[in-house]
Predict the 3D structure of the following.
Amino acid sequence: MLPFLWLAYLAHYLSDYPLQTNWVYRQKCKGWIGGLPHGFITLILLVICLLPWLNNLIVWVFIGIITLSHYIQDYFKIRLCHRYGHLITGYFIDQGLHVLWIFIAWYRLVRPIEMVPFIPLPDILNTVTILSFMGAIWVTFVWEVTILICQREKSFRPNIKKMGIRLIIYSVLLGLFLFYRQ
């Protein structure tokens, strides 16, 4: 069952980082209609990533809940951040809530059911591979987005040198962990 959860997280990270282009972000800032492209991207990625389980109605309910909560949460995050500032705080709260929503929906809806994928998962699509791909997204995109937001946030001055050292250490540790897990 864990590949389901990891693939749901992967869909989230793909929609919030590499596939949330500048155009998509600018549209989200224009109003509730502008958030629809990002919501649609999230929906499509959840459908693609969870394809092996789409024969189960609970999975469609899960996809609907995550897509709707993602859209609503992003709408309010943008409104509150633009009204009160605190972009970095809003960004981290937003990402934390997205991860929490996915976990709660999985835990309450999907985990209790013994679901067998109707399409067999390829061997390469295992937990280590999915976590490695999510780690690559974190190391590349999350770093860039965090730096960009920190530069906009006047009250927050990051120590780029210390952050860079921590990023290198975390990347090496993640790589070693994944290497020795195999």
